[in-house]
């Protein structure tokens, strides 16, 4: 044979043994000699990363990890250098210890996408850079800023009600409107709100009853992050992957970024107004930027995506559980309508302080449909750490399974049931309550410590206001004949890959 004439047979044998033997040697090392070898987990996942990568690519990572944790416990090895954690102690062990080095994000997940010049606050794995940008941006989403932003939230939540009223009225005089995909309308609302807060310009999704072209592209952003990150586990493949990315894709990313830059430029020239950008503008004009122009563009794009998508996801999941549990829906509707005689009485202060069942429903929605089911992978700092009783060596990676903790029968009575009453004050004070022993501190959908979500005050304001106004104005029920959504079966690409939640609406008789 030609090969035999070029390469002696014994070198062919050596090459074959090396090619076949290297993976076997790596697998043996990972299974028996790696610092994580004593952490329980399936052999295939522990020996090779490819099984974890496939689980992420297929969107089944949460369901797969659920099966693994049921079999192996709260700390499971899911890759040669990576574990998955579903124990509530992870919040105190890894995120709330004072004086310890922070657990940075796994940098392999956060390379700048081709075509973009920087990473923003969510994408950076550099703790110092994250702290610098967070210091500048977080006050724009704090309680004081929120008080001045309430008129913007009121405007778009009322516009949502108005647009849905028009839809019901268009159904040829029928009391009940045609089936409506509430996921779509909630996305319209949250993106319009964030567009106004960031740019002083709405995306006009509600007004046009469709997604703005820029917003439509954003829906694939989280999936693109996952697909773009996983090749980084194999440097040779990552190099080829980036080289082979179509020029049209890179151009699309540049256009998305330029869209943000143009809107920010107009916003910087606008008059002072009480939105999220006003604080940032004042800081930058005072000579204390804390952020470059490229970083600001990417950060704002990340904020619009994360801030809008996650809020709409929580509301969609909560509405889905409410229409599947009509008695809970009836109790909540009665509370809202008894406390607020007119729509103008529905304010953020009133909802926060005088709507206990609403807040219980939303807490239960956060438990059962957390907007981010699993925190992005974190890296163990120098010296290693003990987390949840397991020693993790330096540079080991761990995932925090928010969704799984929220449904763990060790922490919750009837964890798979939608029970808002578990969050009412009497549930934690009355020993006779079936939920007296629920471990509520296990549920941390916004994370904790210095890396907690700085937009949670805004998120709480939006979800309270939007849900309250919807149920104040409409009777709502699941649409017959439409596929019902089982939230636990949705695929996850960092965020849920949501399906339509079809409902029917009827304008309440005494709503004016």
TrEMBL record:
Residues annotated as transmembrane: 12-32
GO terms assigned for molecular function: heme binding; iron ion binding; monooxygenase activity; oxidoreductase activity, acting on paired donors, with incorporation or reduction of molecular oxygen
Cofactor requirement: heme
PROSITE patterns cross-referenced by the UniProt entry: CYTOCHROME_P450
Keywords: Heme, Iron, Membrane, Metal-binding, Monooxygenase, Oxidoreductase, Transmembrane, Transmembrane helix
Binding of heme, residues: 453
Family matches, as InterPro entries: Cyt_P450 (IPR001128), Cyt_P450_CS (IPR017972), Cyt_P450_E_grp-I (IPR002401), Cyt_P450_sf (IPR036396), Cytochrome_P450_monoxygenase (IPR050121)
Family as reported in the entry's similarity comment: Belongs to the cytochrome P450 family.
Protein's name in the database: Cytochrome P450
Organism: Cladorrhinum samala
